[in-house]
Design a protein that fits this description.
13 strands, alpha/beta, 4-stranded parallel β-sheet, homodimer, 420 residues, Rossmann fold, 33% helix, 2 domains, 12 helices
Chain lengths: 420, 420
């Protein structure tokens, strides 16, 4: 088979290690120039393919590509752009194949979450129908850790480590001041649908007196009375109370706490922020002094405190996707298979995209303690290895030396424009 | 002179490196047992002295004391407790001397900010008057960086590094998603009175297109029109806009933006958070998608990303305070004297507490760019060395191995109780 080009795109919310995966894809492809001549990266994800706006990665030197391994964010640009069903929007799929054909692209690597796996799956089907079969490989990426089959998702381990370390550190601060100052500290973390990230906060301590004293999961309906009782007890017993709350925490009726009806001076509903809602509840009902932090993007971009396990796995799934492609596989995704907990061992396997697309893996009930405010030993066994190891970026003058690509565009071949 | 004991207390908001200073004090004192028999640490700061509630540091082994160097928070407990003037509350000062006399305490090391330096100064005066002269040494500590004479304050360099790194990382995230998602990102940082911490965010970039695109300082009256204009320009020119805002940002009339009148569903004024106020302003006036983070305690407890310069200086001021005491000095504080910018060199000198107590060093005008939204080259020259170097804590199972003291209490000698 003559060498063809590959197309690589990042999709959805970025992570501290999605570029590590890009590094794994490009470095592995470069070892097989006979089969993969070049990797074209979509500028702003799949939009780059639709608009024929691609970056020529052969124009980036080896040192730059290697530096992707330790650079957070999405180096080529990512996008929240979901292709519709084939029947609803055949034009988009046909355009993709048109671009792939024009640029001799035989491999499609799509690095994202559930939606992206669905897209990769559909592109595989459509390309075959249109007589230009492209090998479509999904590559897992999501801080939400909600892809099925794979034991965990690259991106999650690093956000988990960030949340556990931050909880541990802030708790030491609060405890040392609790006598005369703040008694309740609230850390808001991501996870709109599932409590994986909030659960990671639980790694900060192991004994009942250790922080966090309360975790609020999206999976456990919020019970104000039980919550306030627990805050009071924690302050009485331990002098302070550290709370990790998922942005997706909600009432039994499904309403998010973050939408609890806070209004600005003009009466407009105020968006965002479950932490201030919890804080105000604590103040109004218990009269306790509080502080809150909202980690937001800091948590998923914190490459400076990335998990070495996560970095290694993020690279491995990128490398494996290329290897699978070279073996002639299509419509599959590399998954992480846990072989043992202690010592932690894992390997890469493959799973068909059809079994992954559009499915969500929720935090299992057995990971949440009976009272609903903490994690179980089973959860610890699962989570603990994922945050293990440090993989520091290089520094210069006190700041991480993150790389910026030159982003030389691939010359357009098509005369038609496509508007997304 | 026969050996006497020393009293050490932590005061006010803690930092990532206040325990490093404690480590410097205790390790240095241990080298001079002939003169300093033991270091008693106040539990919860000066309250521990008033209530005769002290921790016997001789009961902590050398390894534990060494581990204080890399442990954030206040290991002995800190307090926001300000002694009043001598005339208003002579009883408190007399009680302090009574406790010092009962425990043979000849050295008083007070590790804090402006208020604490005032207290240390007064204790020196009162102890002499009461015929039990105690050598009183102030030791600088504050993330606010607002103590006079000293070039900078231990604690600041690490929060500055945290803010610069976090700004850099979150900006990479936002930029990569800006095409289809968030265009404006706001990071709220500490600094109610002075913009030192916000200024540190400016280190994340050097060119106009680099983040942060806007810094909002307490020193520059907030101009809504100019601000919104700049946000719009940044999004047009660079595709995104990263804003670092000080919690102390305020209008010309002195009113904090954080008090801008947000109310909850019951009409109660909502406390805290300048970031949501800025975010809402951006949404309501420009219709741009935003995200915001509130760093809060995470920034001042982030020992995992401490500045090596800061750690070294925090230790040095603790060591110097003990050395000054052994040289018979009193009512002084070790200060950091900058010898040169490039290469950065510094040494420890001494300054009288009378020149430090109750004085604030504000961010100089020449550090703020003409448009009021950024920092100048002079600011960079000053700030840059302070964040330099990494000083990672040891890790175990993916988490920093922070130390907890055994905190063996010193047996009480007095029959009277003192209620604070």
């Amino acid at each position: 088979m003559p060498a063809m080009n590959a197309f690589y795109a990042q999709s959805g919310g970025v992570t501290a290690v999605i570029n590590t995966t890009a590094c794994g894809v490009i470095e592995t492809a470069r070892k097989h120039r006979k089969h993969i001549a070049n990797v074209y990266a979509g500028r702003n994800g799949i939009i780059g393919a639709l608009t024929e706006d691609m970056i020529d990665t052969n124009r980036e030197n080896a040192k730059t590509i290697a530096a992707l391994r330790h650079t957070p964010g999405g180096a080529f640009g990512s996008a929240r752009y979901k292709l519709k069903g084939i029947e609803e929007n055949r034009a988009e799929y046909e355009r993709l194949i048109e671009v792939f054909r024009a640029h001799n692209i035989g491999y499609f690597f799509y690095n994202g979450g559930n939606d992206s796996m669905d897209t990769a799956h559909k592109v595989a089907q459509v390309s075959r129908k249109l007589g230009f079969p492209v090998q479509c490989l999904g590559i897992p990426k999501t801080v939400d850790n909600d892809l099925p089959i794979t034991d965990n998702c690259p991106g999650f381990g690093s956000v988990a480590k960030y949340v556990a370390v931050s909880t541990q550190e802030a708790a030491l601060d609060v405890l040392s001041m609790a006598k005369t100052s703040t008694k309740v500290f609230i850390l808001e973390v991501m996870g709109r649908h599932a409590g994986w990230i909030a659960a990671a906060g639980g790694l900060a301590g192991t004994r009942p007196e250790d922080p966090p004293h309360i975790i609020l999961f999206p999976e456990v309906p919020f019970n104000k009375r039980a919550f306030l009782k627990r805050v009071r007890e924690s302050v009485i017993k331990y002098d302070y109370c550290v709370i990790v709350v998922s942005e997706g925490a909600r009432y039994r009726n499904g309403k998010f706490l973050a939408e609890a009806g806070t209004r600005d001076a003009f009466g407009h509903a105020q968006l965002g922020g479950v932490a201030p809602v919890i804080a105000q509840m604590v103040r109004d009902n218990l009269g306790l002094k509080y502080h809150y932090a909202v980690a937001d993007y800091l948590q998923r971009s914190a490459r400076h405190i990335a998990s070495a396990t996560d970095v290694e796995q993020a690279y491995a799934v990128g490398r494996a996707a290329v290897q699978f492609a070279l073996q002639g596989k299509t419509a599959v995704m590399p998954v992480i298979k846990r072989v043992s907990d202690k010592p932690y061992r894992w390997r890469i396997e493959e799973a068909p995209l059809s079994r992954i697309a559009n499915k969500e893996k929720m935090l299992p009930k057995r990971y949440i303690s009976k009272d609903g405010f903490g994690i179980t030993e089973a959860a610890r066994r699962y989570l603990q290895p994922l945050i293990r190891g440090e993989d520091y970026p290089p520094y210069i003058n006190g700041l991480p030396r993150y790389v910026t690509l030159t982003k030389v565009p691939v010359a357009a071949q098509l005369k038609t424009k496509f508007v997304v």
